């Protein structure tokens, strides 16, 4: 079922990318010099338009994911601290359970407090 749902999402996206690539095959010049005056050759690439646009989208997704990962750092830190505290409390809980079992052993005298009866 999960593979079918993946296919249901990926197949239309692949079709959209394919149609986009076929419609935008013309070459464009990508220049890396924002101050190009024309007299000095600048570094540039000649690529099909769909590669430039899809590449830019991929770089944007990666940068957005990295920014989100950085922003969520405080939550990961809080999770690590909470896990450490849970381990400490779990250990304390186990030691208290062991103490209760030792007190409830058949040969140990009961130390439980019994409330006095009221004279009603």
Walk me through the structure.
The structure is a single chain. This protein is mainly alpha-helical and 120 residues long. 63% of the residues lie in helices and 8% in strands. It has helices at residues 2-23, 49-71, 73-103, and strands spanning 27-31, 44-48. Strands 1-2 form a two-stranded antiparallel sheet.
Compile the SSE list and pairings.
Elements: H1 2-23, E1 27-31, E2 44-48, H2 49-71, H3 73-103
Antiparallel strand pairs: 1-2
From the structure above, extract its key features.
120 residues, mainly alpha, two-stranded antiparallel sheet, 8% strand
Helix % is 55-70%
The biggest beta sheet reads: 2 strands, antiparallel
Question: Low-confidence parts, pLDDT < 50 over ≥5 residues?
Answer: none
Overall mean pLDDT stands at 86
Strand order of the largest sheet: 1-2
Series of H and E elements: HEEHH
The percent range for strand residues is 5-15%
Strand tally: 2
Structural class: mainly alpha
Compute the number of helices. 3
Radius of gyration: 34 Å
Span between N and C termini? 69 Å
How would the global form be characterised?
A: elongated
């Amino acid at each position: 079922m999960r593979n079918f749902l993946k296919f249901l999402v990926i197949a239309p996206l692949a079709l959209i990318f394919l149609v986009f690539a076929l419609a935008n095959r013309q070459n464009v010049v990508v220049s890396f010099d924002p101050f190009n005056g024309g007299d000095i050759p600048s570094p540039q690439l000649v690529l099909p338009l769909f590669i430039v646009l899809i590449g830019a989208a991929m770089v944007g997704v990666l940068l957005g994911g990295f920014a989100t990962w950085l922003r969520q750092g405080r939550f990961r830190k809080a999770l690590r601290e909470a896990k450490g505290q849970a381990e400490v409390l779990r250990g304390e809980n186990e030691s208290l359970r062991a103490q209760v079992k030792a007190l409830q052993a058949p040969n140990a005298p009961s130390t439980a407090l019994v409330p006095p009866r009221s004279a009603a």
